[in-house]
Amino acid sequence: MTDFITHPLKSLVIAEENARAEAEPDQGIAQLANLIAEEGLQQPLCGYAKGKTQVAVYDGRRRLLALKQLAKEHRLPSGCTDGVPVRLGSKEQARQASLSAGLSHRGFHPAEEYRQFARLLEDGKTVPEIARTYSVAEREVEKRLKLARLAPPIFDAFARDAITIEQAQAFALTDDHDRQVALLEPHGFDISAHAIRRHLTEGETPATDKRARFVGLEAYEAAGGKVRRDLFGEDGDTLADNGLLTRLAEKKLQEIAEEVRGEGWSWVLAMVAFDPALHQTCYRVHPQKHEVTGEAKEEQGRLVARLKALLDGPEGTEPEEHDLSSEEWEEVEAIEARMDEIDRAHTGFTDDDRARGGVVVHLDHKGEPKIVRGLVRREEKKAETKPDKPSVPHSVHKRCTEIVTQALARDVAANPAEAGILLTAVLARSAFSHWSLQGVKLAISGFHPSEGSELPVSHALAERQEHFAERLGDSLAETVAMVQGLTEDERRELRAFCLAPSLDFTEARSDQPDHGARRTAALIAERFGSDLRQHWTPDEAYFQKLSRPALADALREMGSRETGLESCKKADLVPMAVRRAKSSGWLPESVRFAEATASEETLTDQQHEAALKAA
């Protein structure tokens, strides 16, 4: 039971449990004193007996200070001259009652609140008990206790608003007071919360890292790893032992790799990040669909017949007039799911694919394991094929592919609208795709054909190119201002000119075609309506470098029916080939875009086509 007493003002002191005991007197004390002088003390103080003569006030600090000021000024109201009314409680009630009153007061500084929560913990209260008492989440209690444990110089700076709550929360990433103060001393109070976090977590791995997501914090901690918890940020936790994290991720990936090895592949690699070198050293084979036979074929036939009956409805009913019931729709979905199962069961890699191919198990950017099957090392391909000596010299082949590059670049530059689509697709691949794009390289220097491979100058394109070059200015700021002043059509035209030099389909050797680049070239040629014949026809310089057998093969491809071409003099074959090529529109194999799409021999072919078509 609480008692009301009157107690001499001079024997009233502020209790140490008072949540604002350490706060500086605020400017509102004088105002409150005037109000009490006019209207009297409307609300009694709350305190407990301290020693023989004193009462410690745990609720009513500001009122007590106002009364003491009035006493100095000899202005105490009549109800307080003989003693001040006090509601007397116990010391055990003091801290809880004071904190409850402070939390409801708008002038209550958070630092005062954090101190009181810490004192409650020191008094033996548990986090769940404190949370229940003050109707806050346990995590919120933990946050306040964490801030209360800051190094005294930092906590005091926060209490007097020398640092922000965000800075205080950043310092709380570590419980090491020496480290907190050591970071504060050279930088002062101006150091940002971001900089504090960066310094305190330097060398640590974010919990959002793909390895951490894959391994899991629980498994990492079970293996002895230390986690720095950030109570104040959703993604702020960091892991201290990067080496341990990598070893755990590799071990878990290796377990998946061992399961995949049971499929019969010749080799299986497990790695955290996919090795880009595999793009060059391997090409990829893909699953093939096999003929459905036997019982599976019979089941497939029954499923197709039943599905048709469900969708067509009763005999004599038009399909659009037939509404399926919910049970019938469930049956349709079940049939379609079973048909998919049959298809998957009859789609896969051949035994030969597994015997010569391999698998890479790695993590994607989300930390999910990704299994790349069907990788075949290029040396194995060479051992299988052992091609004969190429009939077209490598230098001639290189010249042809340089001509391809120039021709496509001209078509790109001449078609700004389509170039904008292509540029967006290329940029999207560069930003988001795991696979590199062959044939288009956003390079600053651009493509330059070797001597003797240049196409005749296009004066119209050259004039427009010179027009833009002259307006660039000497600085980036001038270029930005120039671009800002262009019309949208001019900007599209400029983008096309900038994209065109990034194309490069050059192949140094005729026996090592770049199938990925050829597929890119074929797709560009199709979208831009390119026809190499509009830019180049095989000339005397080209045919002069071919052997007689190669000349004879070329003439037969052009429709020549003469016999004994191999025995003719080269001096006779070359002019004949030049004339026939011009009249027939014949092109060397190196530049036949339509046929380039037939190849499936590179690791990235399907990804290239999908990305560009998505544009």
TrEMBL record:
One of its GO terms (biological process) is chromosome segregation. One of its GO terms (cellular component) is chromosome. InterPro entries: Chromosome_partition/occlusion, ParB/Sulfiredoxin_sf. Coiled coil: none annotated. This is ParB N-terminal domain-containing protein. It comes from Parvularcula mediterranea.
